[in-house]
Design a protein that fits this description.
This protein is an alpha+beta fold and 97 residues long. It has one domain. Helices cover 42% and strands 18% of the residues. It is globular, with a radius of gyration of 13 Å.
């Protein structure tokens, strides 16, 4: 699963929360693509529980918002979420120490 995040107008934490709320709304509207929505929800929930968003915003300015570079949330090999942008791959918690 790969989710492109829009950090043009807000930070990484706000975008992940917004995407999570939108996915929940789509899920309960009874859409036929429930399996895909469930996978999206799992990835977004992992991100919300795994990342230290304050550290992300302070360490990588692109994640603080106001930047139009593409940022992707992907399912990492270790079962943890991974943020990818430019040539960076950020995984919790090891890359944040």
């Amino acid at each position: 699963m790969k989710i492109q995040l829009d950090l043009t107008n807000h930070c990484i934490q706000t975008e992940v929360k917004r995407r999570h709320e939108a996915a929940i709304s789509r899920y309960f509207k009874g859409r036929k693509d429930r399996e895909a929505i469930e996978a999206e929800l799992v990835l977004l929930e992992k991100a919300l529980s795994s990342f230290d968003f304050a550290r992300l915003r302070s360490r990588w300015p692109v994640l603080a918002g106001g930047d139009d570079r593409p940022v992707f949330l992907v399912d990492g090999d270790s079962g943890l979420p991974c943020l990818r942008f430019d040539d960076q791959a950020i995984r919790p918690p090891a890359d944040e120490s």
